[in-house]
TrEMBL record, chains A, B:
Pfam families recorded: LacI, Peripla_BP_3
Transmembrane annotation, as ranges: none
InterPro entries documented for this protein: HTH_LacI, LacI/GalR-like_sensor, Lambda_DNA-bd_dom_sf, Peripla_BP_I
Keyword Transcription regulation: yes
Gene3D superfamilies noted in UniProt: 3.40.50.2300, lambda repressor-like DNA-binding domains
Organism of origin: Streptomyces albus
Name recorded for this polypeptide: LacI family transcriptional regulator
DNA sequence: ATGACCGATGTAATCGTTTCCAAGCGCGGC
DNA sequence: GCCGCGCTTGGAAACGATTACATCGGTCAT
């Protein structure tokens, strides 16, 4: 593979000059520049980014560690992040944590070893040594969707409080009185926020939230199944279930199907995060939608601010309820 | 950030020795090795992979260019690829081509600039200059799912011929006679294979495949909608539609919903690629399932063979039909 | 005529590793 | 007592770029 030296030789100049035209520094005679450019294309030379990064100490690469690639919310987020980053001249390297702390830290370290310029992360549950060290070491870093308490890192996220309240009101109005929730991991910030909002909203309408109506999940499909099966072995099962992410909602559907129960006749269902398929499920599923794309864009904006030496603050967007048939109301009778 | 020199100084040895223990070369006294290791952990030193790769000319990184991250089939594939690669000591960098040739080539070049050791790609439609050059330049490369004709590159893929035939037989047995297909991009190998299999199977049961029953899609949701709306402005619309990927099937569902048509009463639907949600749609959707994980694993195996100097051949797995209610048969009456 | 200055280019150090080669040392065989 | 050998270790040259600094004509003001 041709190197800068080959180009220099072919153009009859020094490597310094080649480098100058490549990085368009001023002060190269027009004719020389043309000669260099010609040599570059004749050899179809491409600079070695490893060498360049080693020397300049910047990679123009952002790391993105997401919780789970199989979750459509995160892939949409990843897509938005990549788009925005590319527009700003950065590449993105994605690491999939699969909701596992160890895997997350593995990726964080790998990314850091690659000397990425900044890190975007939606942290998994638990105490991440790698993330804490990185933050302390001053690696430009932004949390997206989820975050870790006590770290001085900007957070770009969606606040679902209002939407969860709307959901509870909605369910209450439809006559549901035994509302259950399936949470994410105990230490997950988003899950806790959603749980707190749910509990507060229930209190507002004068409903209790007994412990056995709190299913302990982990944002993965299987845990939705598990929680559902526990709910329905209760003497008095819930009449509505709120899954705090879309994969657990899938798990709920799967388990209800094996139990032979129907939505919304036997139980209502709602989910956090809206995905295209929710419109075509049987029945269409009520969901709380996040402005996912904007989340990604804003996160990249914040991170590049940090990387390029500007300061960056946290951003909070808001989610909204999309009511569909899964909560009992027939949308066809509504309008 | 601490470098190998700092470690050497702290351990009281030369950088050469540090490097030797880091790469565990033999011939370092046990006591020296221990001292070095201690220094490494005291400084929490991590080797700079850029420098290392520059010197050794290998990155232990694989590039994966997929057609569309928003397509669950590809994210599942990506996940499998990453798992397998990690197991073999490689990292994976993903590029999302979004079904666009230009974006694909952008990623291919970026990946090559990063000096990845090998490239796994599921090529988009069209003549990719970047891929052709890479193949010619001898970059270790493997195609997965889709491929490009005339390039000497191993292909790891699924053959759907048999499954498509099973599907056609299934539809025919259920009384359908006007079968339509929505294809991917014209030059797409997988789409062409599926179309050819569909046409052949129709011939076998003595059914025609008129041109107006061939919807021209591009593997994206919107094209599924478009093709469906064309089908239903025909004097005689099809009574069954086969979408050659899951996103286009989503588009079909969306369009049928706006047209007020019901599956399977008004028209049957089947899709290539099975996804978890197909079980919970209204009605559950008949699909042809690929062994996606195995596809990913085998692709990585083939690529690492190439990277590590062994030879690698193509692999063809096979898909199978999963019949659900969307084709008219009520699965509950079957068993 | 001289020196300051300017624009265009080249020389060489540097980034953090790996690895080839040489060197120091102790030891056994002659 | 010397030579050669094996075992450890160190010195220094790469890898391919960027960039501070030097150089070299030439112009212009004095």
């Amino acid at each position: 593979m041709a190197g800068i030296k080959d180009v220099a030789a072919r153009a009859g100049v020094s490597v310094a000059t080649v480098s100058r035209v490549l990085n368009d520094h001023s002060g190269v005679r027009e004719e020389t520049r043309a000669r260099v450019l010609r040599a570059v294309s004749e050899l179809s030379y491409r600079p070695n980014t490893l060498a360049r990064s080693l020397r300049t100490d910047q990679t123009r690469t952002l790391g993105l560690v997401i919780s789970d690639v199989l979750n459509p919310f995160f892939t949409e987020l990843a897509r938005a992040v990549e788009d925005e980053a590319r527009g700003r001249g950065y590449s993105v390297i994605i690491g999939n944590a699969d909701e596992q702390l160890a895997l997350q830290d593995h990726h964080v370290r790998t990314l850091l070893d690659r000397r990425i310029d900044g890190l975007l992360v939606s942290p998994a549950e638990g105490d991440s040594v790698a993330l804490r060290e990185a933050a302390l070491a001053g690696i430009p870093m932004v949390f997206v969707d989820r975050w870790i308490e006590g770290l001085d890192v900007p957070v770009v996220r969606t606040d679902g409080t209002r939407a969860v309240r709307d959901l509870v009101t909605h369910l209450h109005r439809l006559g549901h009185r035994r509302l259950a929730i399936i949470t994410g991991p105990v230490a997950s910030t988003t899950s806790n926020e959603r749980l707190a909002a749910f509990r507060a909203a229930l209190a507002e309408v004068g409903l209790p939230l007994p412990d056995h109506y709190i299913g302990q999940g982990d944002f993965q499909t299987a845990s939705g199944r598990r929680a559902t099966s526990e709910f329905f072995s209760l003497p008095e099962p819930p009449d509505a279930v709120f899954a705090t992410d879309n994969l657990m909602a899938l798990g709920v559907m799967e388990q209800l199907r094996t139990l032979g129960l129907r939505v919304p006749d036997d139980v209502s269902l709602a989910a956090f995060d809206d995905i295209p398929w929710f419109l075509h499920t049987d029945p269409p599923i009520t969901a709380i939608a996040q402005p996912t794309q904007e989340l990604g864009h804003r996160a990249v904006a914040a991170l590049t601010d940090l990387v390029e030496g500007r300061s960056a603050g946290s951003v909070t967007l808001s989610a909204h309820l999309i009511a569909r048939r899964s909560c009992g109301e027939d949308e066809r009778t509504r309008r």
